[in-house]
Amino acid sequence: RSDLQLHDYCIPVNSYFPTQAMMDGLRARIDKVLRYYPGDNQSISERLGDFLNLDPSRVVVANGSTELITWINHGWVSKNLVTDVPTFGRWTDTAREIGRIVYPFYRRRADDFQLDVREFIRFTDDLGAKAVAICNPNNPTGAFLGRTEMMQLLDAARHLELVVIDESFIDFASADAIPTIVQDALQYDNVIVIKSLGKNLGLHGLRCGYAVASEDWACRLRRMLPPWNVNAIAEDLIRCMPAARSAYEESRRKVVRDSRDLQHRLARLNGITAFPTHANFVFCELDGRFAGRQFRDELLQQSGCLIRECGSKLGGSAQFLRIATRPADQQRLLVRAMQRALTRPHRPTPRRFPPVASPGSLARQRHVVP
Fold first, then answer.
1. 193: closest CA among 202, 206, 203, 180?
2. Do residues 307 and 283 make contact, with C-beta atoms less than 8 angstroms apart?
3. Angle at Cα 95 formed by Cα 91 and Cα 101, nearest 5°?
4. Beta strands at 191-196 and 162-166: parallel, antiparallel or unpaired
5. What is the pLDDT of residues 83-92, one digit of tens each?
6. Taking the model in full, what pTM does it have?
7. DSSP track, 276-298
8. Which residues are 321's β-sheet partners?
């Protein structure tokens, strides 16, 4: 319908950042910013490390976290990778695209998709895998492992060649403080933590992320990347971040508040199961009366609301939806639209998502994603 305004609940962003003053300043500087080369990787990493209170020699900046995922898979996943599913598609897809074997560890719906650390490591060891990657908080489920569980994971995985913790959504896990394990991870020689600045700052088009690792691994990773892999606009915004620290902190707290509010609103809808979240989106499941793709399409066509249906994700199905957090007025609009869609008659879904074997049996069967 051409008369409908599009409302995006598909892409998770920080709706409260950057500040108007930051954007006005960028516009005023844009000619100068774009006319000259940006700094090289090392100089931008040093500036970012200073802002993050991290040893700059352990920070590697990248053209988005996806660039890091790509090079980590090329450089250090020698044969196979274990990752929990459902998860961010580049963790399952990139390794397969370059000929690696991916072993999926299925998170259980009955556990609200929470990761069982001991079972995950046992699964990895049973398969003889040498590399693992997890997202914390998980994308798309929003499930989260606290510091105690993460330390159990890192301790139990000391013998592996590589452990990657993708903390792209960690800034939205808690309003009180950002529960990152970066400082803890620096104690381990086999751990890389990656983050996404674009997601945190509300600027996906910025294409900027970074990795934190031991000095040796950071040096090796930096050598793999092009020297000028980060654009001048990203460099300029990194330079502005110290002055915007308090505004950013306020923005992320608002996002956390909105996420909790959205989860509660969705949980009250008849026909929807909304799972607990520690990210700036909520993972939901439609009951068997509704077909996920049909529901998504009708919501867009009737109300202009675009949501993410997760049928393309390994370990997911079209019955699962990921709904991005927005300010309260936009969330009320979405929930009203979903309520209307849930009361319209739908054809029953022919079948729910196919049952999967337990992680233990998968290990025994050497279940492999081709």
1. 180
2. no
3. 115
4. parallel
5. 999 999 999 9
6. 0.91
7. --SSSEEEEEE-TTS-HHHHHHH
8. 284, 309
